[in-house]
Design a protein that fits this description.
Blueprint lengths: L2 H12 L16 E7 L2 E8 L7 H15 L4 E8 L19 E5 L7 H14 L4 E5 L7 H4 L10 E2 L3 E2 L2 E3 L2 E4 L15 H13 L8 E5 L6 H9 L4 E6 L3 H16 L4 E6 L4 E2 L6 E2 L6 H9 L3 E4 L4 H8 L4 H4 L4 H23 L8 E4 L1
Parallel strand pairs: 1-16, 2-3, 4-10, 4-11, 5-9, 5-10, 11-12, 12-15
Antiparallel strand pairs: 1-2, 6-7, 8-9, 13-14
Length: 365
């Protein structure tokens, strides 16, 4: 492969936007190798976020562009991903076995935060990541029911220090509900609850997680501060609904994470609309465009909007969340798109850190 030909191929590749990022594939450092063997050109792309749902589409786009614009006879494109470890460079001590910690938060209860946390975790896993899910609501844990984990199932132990996460729908999970019974109230003051959360995160033996999602309790109290100040949180996702009171509380969540130097990765607008099951008419029951306005005002991404749908509630209550039970459905597709954007947002932050220019390997046989 001559230098001129390589530059021609790079120019074509850099005109193709990296999914969820916008930069060209070369500018984003996605081109891991270009190999020419006879009349075949092999391109390996490495994204910084899980992308199983769009890998084939991206490969086809690259192949078509190279054959059409660069005049290549045969092109083979391989798309992989390598998820950066944002915890490693954090000022706080990292959590063993975890590369990124994402807080799923809301300013108030009742906005569907836990439902979103469960389905977002499943969506990240469906896209090709290793994912853990921690129930951060010490007083009212709900993930055990949402994930269909049997009552009485208890985590195993590793030595005298670590708990083994319970696997559910392919996720590594931990919850206070695994350690108590439904009749055991957590009559604790805030610092005690915060300490319990910190122990569950640090003393669970997580196994090579790309992402650990923490389903936070609503509000901006002791538990949120404990997580932000003692755990290397990579970013936060704010869940809201369109009505004004929910948006006001969501603002408090964004401001809180800003004050403790945790980046807000974006906003998810839940229950954004309702489609009539009889006629299909779309109704904006709680108002329209609130999440978009909030995201614009604070300069964060609107990661996606989800409908108010009976099946989401039914599936979650039965322990079979939407992304697990209907992986190819319309709602699951929205969650998977949100998942890719969350992963890409964390990747973008790692790219913004000073780094050497990407090395592109070229081989001419």
């Amino acid at each position: 492969m001559t230098e001129a030909w390589r530059q021609q191929i790079e120019q074509v590749l850099d005109r193709i936007p990296t999914p969820c990022l916008g930069l060209g594939l070369v500018a984003a450092g996605c081109v891991a190798s270009l190999v020419q063997e006879g009349d075949t050109t092999r391109v390996q792309l490495v994204l910084g976020f899980p992308a199983a749902g769009i890998a084939d589409k991206l490969a086809a786009e690259v192949e078509q562009a190279l054959r059409g614009e660069a005049g290549l006879a045969r092109v083979e494109v391989d798309v992989k991903w390598s998820i950066p470890d944002n915890c490693a460079g954090h000022a706080l001590e990292s959590i063993a076995g975890v590369s990124n910690i994402i807080a799923i938060a809301s300013g108030k209860g009742g906005v569907g935060k836990s439902t979103c946390a469960v389905n977002l975790a499943l969506a990240l896993a469906a896209e090709g990541a290793r994912v853990g899910l921690l129930d951060g609501d010490i007083y009212g844990p709900s993930l055990q029911v949402m994930l269909g984990v049997d009552d009485g199932q208890r985590p195993g132990q590793h030595g005298d220090k670590y708990l083994l996460p319970i696997e559910a729908h392919g996720l590594q999970t931990m919850s206070m509900a695994y350690l108590t019974t439904e009749k055991t109230p957590m009559v604790w003051r805030g610092p005690m609850a915060g300490g319990a959360l910190q122990q569950m995160i640090g003393q669970t033996l997580w196994q090579d997680l790309d992402y650990l999602l923490v389903d936070m309790p609503p509000g901006t109290g002791d538990i949120q501060l404990t997580l932000s100040q003692r755990v290397p949180v990579s970013g936060a996702v704010i869940i809201t609904t369109p009505q004004d009171i929910a948006l006001l509380d969501a603002v408090k969540g964004i401001e809180m994470f800003h004050k403790v130097d945790v980046p807000t990765l974006g906003v998810v607008e839940n229950m954004a609309w309702y489609n009539c099951s009889k006629c299909g008419h779309r109704e904006y029951i709680f108002g329209e465009g609130g999440g978009e306005r909030l995201a614009a005002e604070y300069g964060v991404a609107l990661l996606g909007a989800l409908p108010l749908h009976l099946s989401i509630r039914q599936q979650t209550d039965s322990g079979t969340p939407t992304v697990a039970v209907d992986p190819d459905g319309e709602i699951s597709a929205i969650y998977r798109d949100i998942a890719r954007q969350v992963g890409a947002s964390l990747w973008r932050r790692s790219l913004e850190a000073p780094a050497a220019a990407p090395l592109i390997e070229t081989v001419d046989d």
